[in-house]
Amino acid sequence: MLRALFRAVRRAERPAFRAVFRPFRAVFRAALLDARLLFRAAFLDARPLFRAALLEARLLFRAALLDARLLFRAALLEARLLFRAALLDARLLFRAALLVARLLLRAAFLEARLLLRAARRPFLAVLRAERLSVRADFRADLRANLLPLLLPDDSLSDESPKSNEREDPGLDELLSEGSGSIQPEPDQPISI
Q1: Contact indicator for 127, 133 with CB cutoff of 8 Å
Q2: Mean pLDDT of 168-176
Q3: Using CA atoms, how far apart are residues 86 and 83, in angstroms rounded to an integer?
Q4: Any residues with CB less than 8 A from the CB of 190 and at least 6 apart, and which?
Q5: Domain enclosing residue 44, as ranges
Q6: Is 64 exposed, middle or buried (0-12, 13-18, 19+ CB in 10 A)?
Q7: Does some domain include residue 191?
Q8: Between the CA atoms of 18, 20, 25 and 26, what dihedral angle is there, to the nearest 10 degrees?
Q9: Is residue 144 assigned to a domain?
Q10: CA of 90: how far to CAs of 78, 80, 93, 168, in Å?
């Protein structure tokens, strides 16, 4: 309720309040226009000074940047020279270490080959002895079993059985089966 009363009072007094401030609006606008003109004149006067200060600052910054670039290039050149020297030293050390490692590896490989040969010798000796004994046994068996078959034996010709005498009775039975004639019957056709 108080708010409504306050709003009603404010609405009633608003035209009187505006009437009091209306003459001051024109004075304020004139002062603001004068101030804008003065501000623009001061800004126009300050622009060349600001440009000169900015140009001077740019020149100083360029000079400082050029000095910094020269210092950076000198430091970079010095660092490159130090890095090259360190790399050359490292390459020489690496080559020396590689040469030593190669010599050690060759010595170890030679020692391993000698140890392998020494370990293989008894095994190879046993293998050779076995091979020689197997070869001697094979030759003895060959001489004992094959040579009598290859050489003619006179004792075999004396004891050869006659053609009509057979030692194997099963063979005689096999041969005696049938009619014993190879002639066909007269009424049977000959088949080949």
Answers
A1: no
A2: 50
A3: 5
A4: 184
A5: 2-149
A6: exposed
A7: no
A8: 130
A9: yes
A10: 18, 15, 5, 97
157 belongs to a structural domain:
no
This prediction has a pTM of: 0.31
Amino acid at the residue 52:
A
Which residues 6+ apart lie within 8 Å of 161 measured at CB?
A: 167
pLDDT of residue 174 exceeding 90, the answer is: no
- Tell me how many domains the chain contains: 1
Mean pLDDT of 107-134: 88
**Which one-letter amino acid corresponds to residue 125?**
A
User: Is residue 97 predicted with pLDDT exceeding 80?
Assistant: yes
Helices (H) and strands (E) in the chain, counts: 4, 0
107 within domain boundaries: yes
Which token pair is 98? 């590689």
Using alpha carbons, list the distances in angstroms from residue 43 to 28, 32, 48, 120: 22, 16, 9, 105
pLDDT of residue 103: 95
Range scoring the smallest mean pLDDT among 40-54, 57-71, 104-118, 134-148: 134-148
Give the residue-averaged pLDDT of 140-148.
78
Residue 88 is encoded by which pair of tokens?
């050359």
Report, in angstroms and rounded to the nearest whole number, the Rg of the chain calculated over CA atoms: 66
